[in-house]
Amino acid sequence: MHTMLVSTAALAGMLDDPALVICDVRHDLARPEAWGENQFRASHIPGARFVHLDRSLSGVKTGTNGRHPLPTPEFAATQFAQTGIAADRQVVIYDQGPGMYAARMWWMLRWLGHDAVAVLDGGYAKWLAENRPVSTAAHSYAPATFAIRKVTPHVNASGVRASLARRTLFLVDARAHERFRGETEPLDPVAGHIPGSHNRPYTQNLDATGTFKSPALLRTEFDALLGSAKPDVVVHSCGSGVTACHNILAMEVAGLGGTRLYPGSWSEWCADPLRPVATGDEATPRS
């Protein structure tokens, strides 16, 4: 069973497995409506089915709950069932390469207790670079029964706000440095970050080839970031609860499981003018 990452070579050897479900979640935040689907129609890994970030992996937006609010467990389970994911299925998810969108679906399946799910390391970019098989055919598949085995706890805005005074949670922000510092904000109306957060851009989880760094190197880097903080107090955020999942996955790869997600992230946090905002660099990690 693959539960975190799967290599392109391993996936290539699994394509004929009837228990395999491959999900293509390619997406572009600047072109959210049809870019991913157009890419999928042009070519995809044989047997893959397309899953849309906004329509299948997000809930209803209210204007105050973030750009990609977490849906209800029941809605998510319905979407997974329609994708053909059943309890005995191994799921492999890929996006255009870095894994930021794939990690969101990976986290959501694990959130509801489906552990046999992995992100394709290097994504479609690596698959293409290695001249592996592609298809333009529409893959037909039957809906399945997806059972919610558990609902893993996450953290909401109230929980984050309550932790700020005593720093009971160790907040890790996955956005780029310039967005974290408040120097620029291309997607949300307010620039900055949640006070007390520590910045770990999700791109730092990848090496020069676009695949995840080794478990040992990731462990070294996260240990340096966390200091004495244990995984069970770590809460991940980003712009809208997507790239934060990449840091959760990287910490799992590093052997640091048990961290939590703040799904609303910055786009929810900054929607309430009464919530505090910080800019600039955060203090050094606690020791």
Q: Can you lay out the helices and strands and say which pair or pack?
A:
Layout: E1 5-6, H1 8-12, E2 20-24, H2 35-42, E3 49-50, H3 53-56, H4 73-82, E4 90-94, H5 100-111, E5 117-120, H6 123-129, H7 157-163, E6 170-173, H8 177-180, E7 198-199, H9 215-226, E8 234-237, H10 244-253, E9 260-261, H11 265-269
Parallel strand pairs: 1-5, 2-3, 2-4, 4-5, 6-7, 6-8, 8-9
Helix pairs in contact: 5-10
Label this structure with key terms.
single chain; alpha/beta; Oxidized Rhodanese, domain 1; four-stranded parallel beta sheet; 9 strands
CATH class of the largest domain: Alpha Beta
The CATH architecture of the largest domain can be named as: 3-Layer(aba) Sandwich
Assembly type of the shown chains? single chain
Main-sheet strand order equals: 1-5-4-2-3
The CATH superfamily of the largest domain is identified as Rhodanese-like domain
Report the sheet with the most strands, covering strand number, pairing sense and barrel closure. Answer: 5 strands, parallel
Low-confidence stretches: 283-287
Question: Can you offer a commentary on this structure?
Answer:
This protein folds into 2 domains: 125 residues, Oxidized Rhodanese, domain 1; 113 residues, Rhodanese-like domain (Oxidized Rhodanese, domain 1, 3-Layer(aba) Sandwich). α5 packs across α10. 29% of the residues lie in helices and 10% in strands. β4, α5 and β5 form a beta-alpha-beta unit. It is an alpha/beta fold and 287 residues long.
